[in-house]
Specification:
The protein is of the alpha+beta class. Helix content is about 35%, strand content about 25%. The chain has 2 domains: about 130 residues, Jelly Rolls (Sandwich), CATH 2.60.120.10; about 70 residues, Arc Repressor Mutant, subunit A. The chain contains 7 helices and 12 strands. GO terms for molecular function: DNA binding; DNA-binding transcription factor activity.
Length: about 220
Amino acid sequence: MSALWYFEEVNLFKILCPHKYPEYKKEHSVNAYKKSDYIYFEQDAANKIYLIDKGKVKIGYYTEEGEEVIKAILTKGEIFGEKAILGVDKHNEFAQSIDNTTMVCPVSKDTMFALMRDNVSVSFKIYKFIGLRIKRLERRLQLLLFKDTRTRLLEFLDEMCEDFGYECEKTGDHIIKHPYTQKDIAILIGTSRPTLNTLMNDLKQEKVIDFNRKEIRLLKKIA
């Protein structure tokens, strides 16, 4: 959406933000966060769902050894904290702004349930979205555990292509205009930035991809 988790090219913020509905508008505000500000911590009460209006948020947790593990980096139009809808009482992860201009709209569970109850289509999208996110997290965990770094990168490029890519009619290449920095991508595939740079350049030399700061191009294979 949205970034990693746009749901079928639908900006969930536009659908779910209470500011779009007169009966809920007065009860909700958009909160501003600077880089490194935490939106919630592990073990905080899970009583809200959060909608990103602007900026980036990373979702992760800390191991017993104190190592940070990043599960996702989310951007405009995405939601997080969605496990509250499933009856989870406390967060088992943290949410932290990684942008100096992040704007987030917190929505109480009661309001979200009301929106879902009044709109069957919204309810369906939310639950399907949650299912998609769980599947992607499971897939990423399997990649981190069992696949080498190159394979993880190629899988992630395919995933980004699904979310942000489109086919160039002239060349047949797939062009990915995405919101991630190289540091973001390195974190998400579990590698270092220098290793990512090396792999990206190797793939470029092999004519698998081409890239610049704004986009990545998956080159069409010619038999």
